[in-house]
Amino acid sequence: MTVPESDIEATESSTLSLGDGDVHVCQDGPRDAPALLLVHGTASSIRSWDALVPLLTGAHRVIRIDLPGHGRSAEPADRGYALPDQGRRVGEALDRLGVEHAVVVGHSSGGVVATALAERRPDLVTALALVNTGPRMSAFIAQEPAAIGPSQWPPTDEQIRRLASTGFSRAGYQVPQELVNDLRRMTFHAFATAPRAVQDYLEQRALPDRLTGLGKPLLVIFGEDDRRWRSSSAADYRAVPGARIELLPGVGHSPILEDPPRTAALLLAFTAGR
Fold it and tell me: Does residue 54 have a cis peptide bond before it, meaning omega lies within 30 degrees of 0?
């Protein structure tokens, strides 16, 4: 489905008041087109998709959501970040938007949230695309511990850029200032707790095992030069029947920022006809 540029609706930003906290969402593209949900990773926000969205709106109603405690979404009322609860919240947000079916794309730990959503709401998720989402904790590349504690919060721009440096294939990549600002607005609790929740979920059961049981079409995109998750671990997803795996040479952990055109082309080919 291709829609003339003149028919593509402008970005609509809204805050949904859910039972356990407000959630911020943005919508782009024709509202009657197939829904494509984009889920960002830990310590990021919907702004991480900014370069990709214009490449997707010709064929999709593109929905972005700030996960709880990130961007402009509130922390959960119970301050909990367990993945099943995150999946529930995202599903409730889509219900509020009137979305009945969606292809869900998750970047990094956003792919873990996408999987949790599909486990909780298989009726809602028609297919999944995971972008540099580690399949299990053994694929994680150990990082130097962040020398930032509650007493040093919020961090400086320099500290944030240093933390973010492994998210890209080359040194000196200029992280968009909007993402720097969004991370600084997080509470230290959200910054520390959300990653631990992802780790707990992966240690309970690896993603390929979870996805095999779901039976959803799966696309896995991995930058070959990822410095956070071993790109060779993308092969683990071959255990999922029919999974399509695409490796991007010269790209690191963040293809959605480092190479939006190639990433968008893969996503559009995958979603065509769904």
Answer: no
Q: What is d(CA 146, CA 238) in angstroms, rounded to the nearest whole number?
A: 33
* Strand-pair partners of 22: 17
pTM of the model: 0.94
Q: Is 271 left (phi over 0), alpha (psi -120 to 50) or beta?
A: alpha
Identify the bridge partners of residue 24 per DSSP, sorted by sequence position: 15
User: Residue 240 and residue 258: Cα distance in Å, rounded?
Assistant: 27
pLDDT in tens, the chain (274 residues): 444 444 456 799 999 999 889 999 999 999 999 999 999 999 999 999 999 999 999 999 999 999 999 999 999 999 999 999 999 999 999 999 999 999 999 999 999 999 999 999 999 999 999 999 999 999 999 887 666 889 889 999 999 998 899 999 876 788 899 999 999 999 999 999 999 999 999 999 999 999 999 999 999 999 999 999 999 999 999 999 999 999 999 999 999 999 999 999 999 999 997 7
**Domains in the chain, ordered, with CATH?**
7-271 (3.40.50.1820)
